[in-house]
Amino acid sequence: MRINLSVLVIAGMIIILPFSCREKTDYPRIWYDSPADASVPDIEDGWQNDPEWLKALPAGNGFIGAMIFGDVNLERIQLNEKSLWSGSPDNNNNPEAYGSLNRIRQLLFDGKYREATELTLETQVCRGAGSGNGNGANVPFGCFQTLGDLWLDFGKNTPYGQYHRELDLDKGVVRISYMQDGIKFKREIFVSYPGRALVIRLTADKKGSISFKSTLNRPERFTVSSQEDNLLMTETMSDGKGGKGMQYAVRLKAVAGSGEITYQNNVLEVKGSDDVVLLLTASTDYSQDYPEYRGDDPLKTTLEQLNKLSGKSCKNLLADHIKDFSALSRKVSFRLSDIKNDTVPTDRRLGNPDDLRLHELYFQFGRYLLISSSREGTLPA
Fold it and tell me: Is 123 within the bounds of a domain?
């Protein structure tokens, strides 16, 4: 998943978050009154030109990252696993680089900048394919890879209203609510550091009114299979040398007190429920262990993580997450103004330079992103 801290800071400020009853709140939040459109294909030339992806709300635990679109009829959650890279160990040392360094310096001192540039381009480069001129995914150098997408297809196309989507920066929880066909639907989504998992709870105020099909995919190199009680997506990245590189695994499980759950034909399907919890675990075989950097089997790791979660209620998982997250988020607070404008969607506040509370929100959003992307035992943000 494309998790880039500076980009996500901007993304969050372009966001829209909402509550049908626009009550004042005592916690920092970013909110929209409309979803990001999950049906729009990604634009490959970068985040700045991908407006729908930028409207999605970020969540993470330092291991797993998620961009949550909040679409009513087709939910998309774009996923990252922090260690997922293509490529493989490669000797890129260039012994000629050091030998030319003094000559380059002297050319600069002599004002011969063209010659210095030419010699630099000729000698101060790594051996091998390097980053492949923007094609790093297919050479040993490698590049970061998206983990893929989690889709929830509700099979509806009827009108909806009272839409609200918010990111609670205090508790690290995304909340979505709306009315459709006279029914109040809610989603609560968080990525738990204690639980090492993405947790999604879907509820409705009418019995048997939640039905959907859930799938996993990514742009390339993925195989999905239906297990006894979970959906599994796994494969290996390219090592850049024509072989297999890093392996990854993603597992998705549904738990419901009512209705029917099936795992068939690579699809997780829920029928006729009113309270469903989805649990997603993800891992790779990466380990900071020189020289191969390979560790535990992600198929085994994700299954063990899923089994640990299965014995806990969503209420307990949420309580553990909030306790862990808020211990960090509540360490810092400040006030620039007593005038609070959070009854106005965040995107509509951006044009007001006098909205000092928006500056507070921007500051807290930056802290939220760092907490969500860098935790003890994870790779640096």
Answer: no
